[in-house]
Write a structure and sequence with these properties.
Blueprint: H1 4-14, H2 26-34, H3 36-42, H4 49-60, H5 65-71, E1 75-78, E2 88-91, E3 97-100, E4 104-110, E5 116-122, E6 131-136
Length: 137
């Protein structure tokens, strides 16, 4: 069941915030929402993407949130056209996940100054043919 209050809290915490590895990043967003125990173990324990991959591998046996989701029985892959509020999107072959918000996504974007920040973006801003989607069972 989708916990709309949790999703609202995630939007409030991440939207318009700069991406900070280990604290406010796409992995932390998904873990905070769906895997709170894992979130507590890894939160603020890395400062780079590579450091996050090393720490995740050490703690959980997977180097990325996408690798974890693909292999965890609590998640199921779904066709992009069936994705809905609370589902996890992942851009294939990139280290990038985003959260489906129904009519939009919460994703990392680049602002006018070239900084990576979380933003609520329209659904047409991400090419779903380059993505995989997952649902927490």
């Amino acid at each position: 069941m989708i916990d709309k209050l949790k999703i609202k809290k995630i939007i409030e915490r991440y939207n318009n915030q700069p991406r900070t590895c280990g604290d406010v990043d796409c992995n932390m967003m998904i873990l905070e929402l769906y895997e709170p125990e894992a979130y507590v173990k890894i939160h603020k324990h890395y400062k780079t993407i590579m450091g996050g991959a090393r720490k995740a591998k050490q703690l959980f046996g997977f180097a990325s949130i996408l690798e974890f989701i693909r292999h965890d029985e609590n998640y199921e892959a779904i066709p992009p056209k069936f994705a809905m509020l609370g589902d996890i999107g992942a851009i294939k072959d990139e280290h990038c996940t985003f959260l489906h918000l129904g009519n939009s996504y919460l994703a990392i974007t680049t602002d006018d100054g070239g900084n990576e920040v979380f933003s609520v973006v329209s659904r047409d801003s991400i090419d779903v043919t380059t993505c995989e989607f997952f649902r927490r069972k």
